[in-house]
Amino acid sequence: RSGEMAKMTQLIDNEVFRAYATYTTIILLKMMLMSLITAYFRITRKAFVNPEDTASFGKGESAKKYLRTDPDVERVRRGHLNDLENIVPFLGIGLLYALSGPELSTALLHFRIFAGARIVHTFAYLIPLPQPGRGLSWAVGYAVTISMAYKVLKTALYL
Amino acid sequence: RSGEMAKMTQLIDNEVFRAYATYTTIILLKMMLMSLITAYFRITRKAFVNPEDTASFGKGESAKKYLRTDPDVERVRRGHLNDLENIVPFLGIGLLYALSGPELSTALLHFRIFAGARIVHTFAYLIPLPQPGRGLSWAVGYAVTISMAYKVLKTALYL
Amino acid sequence: RSGEMAKMTQLIDNEVFRAYATYTTIILLKMMLMSLITAYFRITRKAFVNPEDTASFGKGESAKKYLRTDPDVERVRRGHLNDLENIVPFLGIGLLYALSGPELSTALLHFRIFAGARIVHTFAYLIPLPQPGRGLSWAVGYAVTISMAYKVLKTALYL
């Protein structure tokens, strides 16, 4: 079975694939961080959505007042959903792009710009920065994904 | 290193994998289009959710009235979320299916029907078409994903 | 072409990869089940969001009263979104982890705990169980994903 393992690790030995693995993991960890930030704001703002989450604040009306929306919580949640909407395409298209034989330097450029843009987008959303800060960072990540999609379709197109 | 690159591109040279790459890229680009449609409706309907997005309309009360929900914006957003809920399973199960050694013609059938169903679903949601148009297109994509999942589990099951 | 097919199936013949394929498929099917549960509650609670979905209940005011939110529907939808937020990172990081050459027993431990935690999370959300049931099951899945991300970065880091 060690022969098979050796074949498997060929993929992770490839530099483009290693770069994809690195930046994808970083950007997915960043997305996961949104869950912790949401939890932080829910607890500090005392703004919950599930009745069972407020049980520690007592019963009945005293707990019910914490079942409410809070602008900061909702802001983090919108940032989280925007991450999902943009990181899922990167996950899929980026993997196919990494397997389509791009130049290492070109691939690194794509991955680094995407990861940077999404990190800037998160700060722009949470601080918040005045527009077009958030809009531009979103557009940069979007454009990088389109560019990778173009390369995938040029290399692999099979309809 | 060119030897490793050659090994890498074996994956993208495989016809089933190329078909997966093609249809996955197409359907992820379609999902990404939902972001642009949402932005289009937010701007034309003047319906925003973040205060910083309305700053160009002036300050105070004059800008605040644009912080509202709009039925068309919400409709696109529901379509986008439905895409996420259904395309994420396709992304994962489809990749594993493509690696499970299906017949090329069978794989193409799965990928084409899924992509077609999701495109019809988008039109059915946005026009909107009367039911069961949207429901049926959703169910077709769902059934295709279940069929691929069955093949993956039959081939690879290791609990 | 059968030579290429043989190379392709090497991936699915690897036991760690087969385990990843199995648990990923199971957990994506579980996530897809949330769509059916949402539909079930929408129909039994008569709580819809799209006007075209209520057309079978008649026209005008008689149908409009079914355009409403229902606590049970909203609960399932929150569980579904939480799945997306946590299963998408597992999908990406888990794939890279499976390719990073972990011990089979360690990999199985990660996959089994993640899948178990997400299934418990779903029950905890839908029953609902008192806290910290849901919180703990969420945290276990989160921790497993972080552990896999650590292994990926340790093996593949290429910035």
TrEMBL record, chains A, B, C:
Coiled coil: none annotated. It is a multi-pass membrane protein. It holds the Pfam family MAPEG. Keywords: Acetylation, Endoplasmic reticulum, Membrane, Mitochondrion, Mitochondrion outer membrane, Transferase, Transmembrane, Transmembrane helix. Gene3D superfamilies: Membrane associated eicosanoid/glutathione metabolism-like domain. Its EC number is 2.5.1.18. It comes from the Eukaryota. InterPro entries: MAPEG-like_dom_sf, Membr-assoc_MAPEG, MGST1-like. It is found in: Endoplasmic reticulum membrane; Mitochondrion outer membrane. It is an enzyme of class 2 (transferase). GO terms for cellular component: endoplasmic reticulum membrane; mitochondrial outer membrane. The chain crosses the membrane at residues 20-41, 84-101. GO terms for molecular function: glutathione transferase activity. It catalyses: RX + glutathione = an S-substituted glutathione + a halide anion + H(+). Homotrimer; The trimer binds only one molecule of glutathione. Belongs to the MAPEG family. Conjugation of reduced glutathione to a wide number of exogenous and endogenous hydrophobic electrophiles. This is Microsomal glutathione S-transferase 1. It comes from Glaucidium brasilianum (Ferruginous pygmy-owl).
